[in-house]
């Protein structure tokens, strides 16, 4: 009985992993695009370093992966020095 419940739990985690993996991959692609944009442009003082830390650090947390990229494109791009 215990082996069946552990197998069921493993199966559930595997299915969740397979379902969420494409979303994480999309987030990683957006992170790379954001990093390229951050490194190509000029910011005031330490804002560039802060945005790099936010975008790279969010890759370890699945939920914030996409949210941090949205924040950069909504807030960070306005802070660039033209």
Give the helices and strands, then pairings.
Layout lengths: L1 H39 L6 H11 L4 H13 L8
Helix pairs in contact: 1-2, 1-3, 2-3
Summary, kept brief:
By secondary structure, the chain is mainly α. 77% of the residues lie in helices and 0% in strands.
Would you kindly provide a written description of the structure presented here, covering whatever features stand out?
By secondary structure, this protein is mostly helical. Helix content is 77%, strand content 0%. The protein contains 3 helices and no strands. Helix 1 (2-40) runs antiparallel to helix 2 and helix 1 (2-40) packs parallel to helix 3 (62-74). It is elongated, with a radius of gyration of 18 Å. It starts with a helix and ends in an 8-residue tail after the last helix.
Structural class: mainly alpha
- How large is the radius of gyration? 18 Å
Strand content: under 5%
Shape field:
elongated
The CA-CA distance between the termini, in Å, is 65 Å
Q: Mind summarizing the main beta sheet?
A: none
Oligomer: single chain
Q: Encode the helix/strand succession as letters.
A: HHH
Share in helix:
over 70%
What are the defining features of this structure?
single chain, 82 residues, mainly alpha, 3 helices, 77% helix, elongated
């Amino acid at each position: 009985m215990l082996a069946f419940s552990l197998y069921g739990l493993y199966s559930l985690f595997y299915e969740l992993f397979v379902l969420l993996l494409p979303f994480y991959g999309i987030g990683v692609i957006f992170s790379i695009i954001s990093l390229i944009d951050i490194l190509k442009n000029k910011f005031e003082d330490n804002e560039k370093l802060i945005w790099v830390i936010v975008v790279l650090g969010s890759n370890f947390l699945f939920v914030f992966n996409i949210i941090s990229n949205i924040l950069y494109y909504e807030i960070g791009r306005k802070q660039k020095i033209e």
